[in-house]
Specification:
By secondary structure, this protein is an alpha+beta fold. The protein folds into three domains: 4-47 and 94-284, putative glycoside hydrolase family protein from bacillus halodurans (Beta-galactosidase, Chain A, domain 5, Distorted Sandwich), CATH 2.70.98; 54-87 and 396-607, Glycosyltransferase (Alpha/alpha barrel), CATH 1.50.10.10; 299-331 and 609-742, no CATH class. Helices cover 32% and strands 24% of the residues. It is globular and about 85 Å long.
């Protein structure tokens, strides 16, 4: 089985590059045979000084907002939140630097580039001026180094430059380029439309870094105009690494030098073998073939063009599936930070939406497929970020007059928790997200449901309990409905029409209320597992049945808000009110068909369009409704070729298969993997094989998918029937430090 990305042309823009990574170092190489630009990232390189932005208000504002809402002054309540509750925006994930290589002009023939998913190896071959070139590159997780080799069959020349968009200096030390620099003190969020968004302050300096590039070659190295010039080489190797000051007080230069020297001592061949062995041990845990298709198309861009003309999309969809698993391994590893909106890849100082952690769907979606794809090691960065958010969220909870912790809809590397965009009209549509802390806590419990590790559950118990404590204190009892409500709150980014005005503030949005119900239920289960039986557990149990339940609107759909409001955008990209169908379980587990039928009508009303991540979410929702044919139609939309880079709501993929919102957001790539896994097997209740099998998938085989309960499954099907099935205990999670790659 050969799964890869391939193309007979170089990347025409950054979105068409093939990403390399090891969780910390991200690389995007445009693979230009004349002059190439390699974008470099470090997952700790964000703008900002690291100072946590604290809330600046108290619980009296919450009481005032509630009073205005109850008086029907909803717009006034929304303005009060924007002016008095919303605070500073997050910082931005930014590009650290670039390697620019000038390989000389000449007519190029026989060009081909390829990214192999199994090994994480990127190759480029071409002929120029009758000289044959072969480039091979990878980012090693064990070695913490980016390595690139260029071979040619006749002596050639090139120059190489190490540079950055941030403040920096670069110097040459014999065969090395050494760059030192500093991140901006802050970068204004794109929502501010600032003319000078990148700012440096002497009293609040950003993260500093050292980046090092060593050249090993059989050619002659010299300095030329501040670059390294290599003359007469037939083999050249680049060894690159970086180190920032984030959570590091040591000598960054020495750290980089030690990494580089170790990699050089191993040499290219051994470094490549170690890296590919590490990568393949994770990637090969799962295999999927359908209708006899095992290999990726030779030219993925041409395949996408053919699909646009009516060609069969299945080969591209299978490649997209494995590409998503590849991105998890390349972008989220032990001791790394979690995947942000663009994973770990960024080529600017002002990325869309600050390339931060968006907690009303996108951050969580990044980690939906990780457990079912049998990659528990790659879930660790997500867990660690939740820990950071929970700790910082305690102050925000206090400002709301509650115990525990809570967070707005955005976070960043530094653990930002405050609702964003102070005094910006309209920011109320997204800044609050009262369900976010509960959603993140349920993600921790989901980890336990897969691995049944009680030690892990005990370690995260206080985080989960803190989220429950917040809701116990924050929810209020509504005398009109005799139910608990949660306000002020919103249904993420959506709005309704009331008295000819567009509003979003609500007292019991469906998503938040479902999250609270599921969280409280999970908390009782956790207490039973850990043998905890105290008064707080009993208090939580008393609340569960009085939390506002799902309601069905006059149109027969799941009601998104506490009242049957008219939707401002009937085709809105978010389907938050269906949380209980997926990724939640309340609707999915419900007896009878009432809630499921209402969810189906809601999905039908929202339509089959949307951004890339919205399409992925809808595929998973249709899978939970056991409608494989509808899910597959949306999967076909997910491989729609997008050639523009502007913002839009008609999603698909770029020629690199990177998910196009547009612009690029990695959540669409990862959501597709989770959705396909849901089509193949569901285990949130009882294990069900092929719950949403499309008619067109007449034959197939999957190996190694993880299910809840600590097991993996493999099976072969034909004509809708499972012919072979095996189930076994999931192998113990492997820490790379315990593995001898030599």
């Amino acid at each position: 089985m050969a799964r890869f990305l391939g193309s007979f042309e170089k990347a025409n823009n950054w979105n068409e590059c093939y990403p390399l990574g090891n969780g910390r170092i991200g690389v995007m190489d445009d693979a230009n045979p004349i002059k190439d630009t390699i974008s470099l990232n470090d997952d700790t390189f964000w703008s900002g000084s690291g100072k946590i932005k604290q809330p600046r208000y108290n619980k009296d504002i919450i009481a005032e907002v509630r009073e205005l809402y109850n008086e029907g002054k909803i717009s006034e309540a929304e303005r009060l939140i924007e002016n008095e509750i919303n605070g500073d925006t997050t910082e931005s994930y930014i590009e650290l630097g670039r390697i620019e290589t000038d390989k000389g002009k000449g007519k190029v023939k026989d060009y081909y580039r390829k990214l192999d998913f199994t090994s994480g190896i990127h190759t480029v071959t071409y002929t120029k001026k009758k000289v044959a070139f072969q480039e091979t590159s990878f980012v090693s997780f064990p070695g913490q180094v980016y390595v690139r080799q260029i071979l040619c069959d006749k002596p050639s020349n090139l120059s190489v430059k190490l540079t950055s968009l941030v403040k920096h200096t670069t110097k040459i030390e014999d065969d090395m380029l050494v760059m030192e620099g500093v991140a901006p003190s802050t970068v204004d969020h794109p929502s501010k439309s600032s003319h000078e968004p990148v700012k440096y302050f002497d009293d609040a300096k950003g993260t500093s870094f050292v980046a090092m590039l060593k050249v090993v070659t059989d050619g002659e190295i010299s300095e030329k105009k501040g670059n390294l010039f290599v003359k007469g080489y037939t083999k050249i190797e680049f060894y690159y690494t970086s180190k920032t000051s984030y959570d590091f007080l040591g000598d960054k230069y020495k750290c980089c030098l030690d990494v580089i020297n170790t990699a050089v001592d191993f040499g290219f061949a051994q470094s490549q073998n170690i890296s590919s062995t590490d990568f393949s041990r994770l990637f090969n845990r799962v295999e999927l073939s359908i209708n006899g298709i095992e290999d990726s198309p030779e030219d993925i861009k041409q395949e996408l063009i053919n699909i646009k003309k009516g060609g069969n999309p299945l080969s591209a969809i299978l490649t997209l599936y494995d590409f998503g698993r590849y991105l998890i391994i390349a972008g989220s590893r032990e001791d790394s930070n979690p995947l942000n909106l663009q994973g770990i890849w960024c080529n600017t100082l002002t990325p869309p939406w600050a390339s931060n952690y968006t907690l009303n769907i996108n951050f969580q979606m990044n980690y939906w497929p990780v457990l079912s794809s049998n990659l528990p090691e790659c879930y660790d960065p997500y867990v660690n970020q939740i820990r950071k958010i929970a700790e910082n969220g305690k102050e925000l909870a206090k400002s709301f007059g509650a115990r525990g912790w809570v967070v707005g809809h955005n976070s960043d590397l530094h653990g930002h928790v405050v609702p964003v965009d102070s005094k910006k009209h309209g920011s109320i549509t997204y800044s609050l997200c009262m369900g976010a802390s509960g959603w993140l806590s349920l993600s921790l419990y989901k980890r336990y449901q897969y691995n049944k590790d009680e030690k892990f559950l005990a370690q995260v118990f206080d985080i989960i309990k803190g989220s429950v404590e917040f809701y116990i204190d924050f929810i209020t009892f509504d005398e009109k409905t005799n139910k608990y409500v949660c306000y002020p709150d919103i249904s993420p980014e959506n709005s309704y029409i009331l008295h000819k005005r567009r509003n979003c503030l609500d007292k019991a949005p469906a998503m938040t209320m479902c999250i609270i119900r599921e969280l409280f239920t999970a908390y009782i289960d956790i207490c039973n597992i850990l043998n905890i039986d105290d008064e707080f557990k009993k208090e939580v149990a008393r609340h569960i049945h009085f939390i506002t339940p799902y309601m069905i609107s006059e149109s027969g759909r799941i009601q998104e808000w506490s009242q049957d409001f008219k939707e401002a955008e009937p085709k809105h990209r978010h389907v938050s009110h269906l949380y209980g169908l997926y990724p939640g379980e309340e609707i999915a587990k419900s007896k009878g068909t009432m809630l499921k039928d209402a969810a189906r009508k809601s999905l039908e009303a929202r339509g089959d369009g949307g951004t890339s991540w919205a399409l992925a979410w809808k595929v998973a929702l249709w899978a939970r409704l056991k409608d494989g044919n509808h899910a597959y139609e949306l999967l076909k939309n997910s491989v729609r070729l997008i050639t523009h880079k502007f913002h839009g709501m008609s999603g698909g993929v770029y020629a690199s298969l990177l998910s196009a919102h547009p612009p690029f957001q990695i959540d669409g790539n990862l959501g597709v993997v989770a959705a396909i896994n849901e089509m193949l097997v569901q285990s949130y209740d009882e294990v069900e094989l092929l719950p949403a099998l499309p008619d067109e998938w007449y034959e197939g085989e999957v190996k190694g998918l993880a299910i809840e309960g600590g097991k993996t499954v493999s099976f072969y099907w034909k004509a809708g029937r499972v012919i072979r099935y095996t189930e076994k205990e999931q192998e113990k999670e492997q820490k790379y430090s315990d593995i001898d790659f030599l």
